[in-house]
Amino acid sequence: MSDPFFQPPAGTDLPRYAGVPSFMRLPYLPPDHPRRAEVDIGLFGMPWDGATSNRPGARHGPRGLRDASTMIREMNRHTGQEPFKAARVADLGDIAMSPVDQDQALDAAQSFVAELLGQDIRPFMVGGDHLCTLAVLRELRAARGAPFGLILLDSHTDLYPAYFGGKTLTHGNPFRQGIEEGCLDPTRTVMIGMRGTSYNNEDFQYGHDRGVRIIPIEECMERGWQSTLQVAREVVGDGPTYASFDIDFIDPAFAPGTGTPEVGGPTSYQAIQCVRALRGLNLIGADLVEVAPPFDTGGITAWLGASVMFEMLCAMQPDG
Known about the structure:
Helix content: 25-40%
CATH superfamily: Ureohydrolase domain
Number of strands: 8
Radius of gyration: 18 Å
Strand content: 15-25%
């Protein structure tokens, strides 16, 4: 599987602050590149936050994460994995999404994802706000012809109905919409880390009524993270599963650069443990969303996000 073309340059050969940044210094392959169809896992950006309900800024997430991810090296010291040797991974660029037209933005995103799936490339989306995930879920559902499972690491369920009289999709409802459209199997959906104040209990009630397993932060802390992720593994089983990681899953003491922070979350180390626990599952795609560099402090959120991305890539490996 190892192919020198898909190996990032080492920092001993090219300084990490030099060169044009790509995700993890991997090769950048635009749509017309002759080797694009060889990719196993495609990293791509959705620089869009047109569904943000309060503090925008996640549109700058892909660029911030590319810069931060130049610090990623080749080996996962804990697991011994070398993900860039085990699979052909590349940066496939950003999707041109209108900042003022939600329909155009989502249509463009879906067309992009559909092309990747048509080439048997597993999608790894970097947002952008959490509504970006819906575009990926829709195309995975179309390609597979059946709903699939979900593991969500987030401080919010994103199961609310559309805002403002039921007409507007936001980053608060991609998974409700995904269930309603038949993308997600609610009985194989688990949501971990929910906390903070709320408008009401409608999102939890919606999930409970449809069989979604919601594990709020209090239960996570009482169980411990290893037990919590074991529950998640039991919920999704061996079937096809999508993994979505909202950076606000992590306590804002460690990840302040996000639009809707919630205190009382896991540490950066605990979050990494959660991602490592996904190894061996049948992951058909993944994302990292809601990194908002304008609210970051010293780039720590972007660096943590890049580290989560690397761990997620390891969890997606065929030898996992």
